[in-house]
Amino acid sequence: MNITGYSVEYIKDPTGILTGDRYEFFLDIDVDEEDDLYSVNGIKLRVLFYKNDEDERILNYHFLENQTGKVLEFALDEEEEKTVSRFCSENISQA
Q1: Fewer CB within 10 Å, N side or C side of the chain?
Q2: pTM for this one?
Q3: How far is the CA of 75 from the CAs of 16, 21, 55, 63, 80, in angstroms?
Q4: Which InterPro entries does this chain map to (predicted)?
Q5: How far apart are CA 6 and CA 47, in angstroms?
Q6: What's the chain's Rg over C-alpha atoms?
Q7: Under 8 Å CB-to-CB from 93, ≥6 apart: which residues?
Q8: Which 3 state secondary structure label does DSSP give 89?
């Protein structure tokens, strides 16, 4: 799994109730044809990422089929989750 592109958006909390900042990432994912996750329509990973002064982490994520937007029922393994979390952390300044 390789991240080939992305978009990120800061999510405003209109109530001011939530602490920290939240970001929505859409990561373009390149998946090997032999991987169960592979789709001819392409794959995106939607990530909700959280950051405050003491903590940053993935809150939630979903794999999506590019052309249909269909949610795919797959999970990241531990190493992939670390890679995605690091990528999001390094790229939140683009929001």
Answers
A1: C
A2: 0.89
A3: 31, 24, 22, 8, 9
A4: DUF6509
A5: 11
A6: 14
A7: none
A8: helix
Give the start-end residues of each E strand in 1-51: 2-11, 21-30, 43-51
Per domain, the residue ranges of the chain are 2-94
- Structure tokens, 8: 């990120």
Average pLDDT, the chain: 91
How far apart (Å, rounded) are the C-alpha atoms in residues 57 and 52? 10
Residue 8 neighbours by CB under 8 Å, 6+ apart? 23, 24, 25, 26, 88, 91, 92, 94, 95
CB 37 within 8 A of CB 72: yes
